[in-house]
Specification:
cytoplasm; Four Helix Bundle (Hemerythrin (Met), subunit A); 0% strand
Length: 153
C-alpha cells in the first residue's frame, strides 16, 4: 500500500523547514535537560518542594550556572518561536528550494552556535556573532513575506 502524503508534505521547501524546525525544537529540549542536570549538580532549586526533596531548604536558591542555562533557553524561545512562524509562512511563498534551505540552515546553524557559545562561556563576540548570523535569514524571510502580502493590505 502506498503512503499518500498531504500536499504540504510533498512541498520540498516545507519539508526542509520541518527538518530544521525539528532540530531546533530538539535542541531546546536538550537545553532544558541540561538546565535540570546543572540544577541537580549545583543543588540550586527554583521551588522549595524540590529543595526539600534534595537536601533541604538551603538549596532553594539561585546559581549563576543554572541562570546561564535558563538565559540560553529563554533566548531560544525569543528567537526560535518567531522563526517557526516566519519559516512556515515563507514556505507558502514557493521560494527556491535551495534558497529556502540556505535560510533555514543558516538560522539553525546560528542558533546551534549561539547555544554552544552561551553554555560553554566562549569569549565575546562569539555569541553575538552567532546571534546576528541567525537573525539575517529571519529578516530576509520577514521582508519577503511583507512584500508578498503588501498588495492584500
Amino acid at each position: 500500500r502506498l503512503l499518500v502524503l498531504p500536499d504540504m508534505m510533498q512541498n520540498e521547501v516545507f519539508m526542509s523547514f520541518t527538518f530544521y524546525s525539528t532540530v531546533l525544537i530538539v535542541k531546546m529540549y536538550v537545553v532544558a535537560i541540561i538546565t535540570g542536570q546543572v540544577r541537580l549538580r549545583k543543588k540550586a532549586f527554583a521551588n522549595p518542594e524540590d529543595a526539600l526533596r534534595n537536601g533541604g531548604l538551603q538549596y532553594y536558591r539561585e546559581d549563576p550556572d543554572v541562570e546561564r542555562c535558563r538565559r540560553a533557553h529563554r533566548n531560544d524561545m525569543e528567537n526560535i518561536f518567531p522563526f517557526l512562524f516566519l519559516g512556515a509562512v515563507y514556505s507558502l511563498l514557493e521560494p527556491s528550494p535551495a534558497v529556502a534551505r540556505l535560510h533555514f540552515g543558516a538560522f539553525c546553524a546560528g542558533r546551534l552556535a549561539h547555544t554552544v557559545a552561551y553554555l560553554l562561556k566562549l569569549r565575546a563576540p562569539a555569541r553575538s556573532v552567532a546571534y546576528g548570523l541567525a537573525q539575517l535569514p529571519c529578516f530576509s524571510m520577514a521582508l519577503q513575506i511583507l512584500a508578498a502580502t503588501l498588495p492584500y493590505c
